[in-house]
Specification:
91 residues; mainly beta; 6 strands; 40% strand
Length: 91
């Protein structure tokens, strides 16, 4: 399911546009990221600390790619937790 245009933002990271949205949860902030031009691709969902900074989106994109996130292809969303040491996959 694609992210809504009104409640999301676009970020350009290494010349690729991603769309992301955040929401508050009991444990912190959850962000969802997908490709802007291919919203039906794989999404990454990251659980972030309560003190959220927009530059954390770039960290999730970069580390998510290293973990095997492929937003160009269709597939189930990947859920991760952002920590001081990077992303940790959640099963």
């Amino acid at each position: 399911m694609a992210l809504p245009l009104k409640k999301s933002e676009v970020i350009c990271f290494y010349d690729i546009q991603y769309r992301w949205a955040k929401r508050s949860t009991e444990r912190g902030v959850e962000i969802k990221i997908e490709l802007n031009e291919k919203p039906d691709g794989q999404m990454i969902i990251a659980q972030c600390p309560r003190i959220f900074r927009p530059d954390m989106v770039e960290t999730v994109i970069e580390d998510g790619r290293k973990l095997g996130w492929q937003p160009e292809t269709s597939g189930d969303a990947i859920t991760v937790r952002l920590t001081k040491r990077g992303l940790i996959p959640i099963t």
